[in-house]
Amino acid sequence: MTSGRITAVSRNASYSFSKPNHPSITLLAGLGVEGDVHAGETIRHQFRMTYEPDLPNLRQVHLMHEELFEELAPKGFEVSAGQLGENVTTRGVDLLGLPTGTLLRLGADAVVEVTGLRNPCSKINDFQSGLLGEMFALDPRSDEFTFKCGVMAVVRQTGTVRPDDPVEVELPALPHRVLERV
What we know:
Blueprint lengths: L1 E9 L10 E2 L2 E4 L3 E2 L27 E5 L1 H6 L15 E4 L11 E4 L3 E8 L5 H5 L8 E4 L4 E4 L3 E7 L1 E3 L4 E5 L12
Parallel strand pairs: 5-6
Antiparallel strand pairs: 1-2, 1-6, 1-13, 3-4, 3-12, 5-11, 7-8, 7-13, 8-11, 9-10
């Protein structure tokens, strides 16, 4: 089991690209972040709701690694927690290297299950021109392009999370499945 920590938590009750930071957020089992527009049992992504409204919401919580912001800075992009729409910003966890089904224990009580990679959209370029191109990378395991803008998860156990809370990683049983976009 590996561990890291939470550096920021964010939510927004209305649809917008960025999410403001908060002192804490509550994760609700089977729903997502309490008070966040993307919380729900079925799809809440604004575009996908128009053609897949009854599918399960595999994007209840968006997690992003803070190390990405440091990678982007020398390239001229200033990005901080919540600005790319994530709910939980982490440090010290290789989110993109986790297999599907990984459990993340956030703080004292909350548990989320990783469902896949966040699929970056063109709104990233509206936030900062040219940033979308930085959200793709060649995956050395498959020699295919992959996404770098975090992972999506569903809430398995309710709990409140705050900055500086620990993140514990529990890998699923073998064989592991590489993350795909959701």
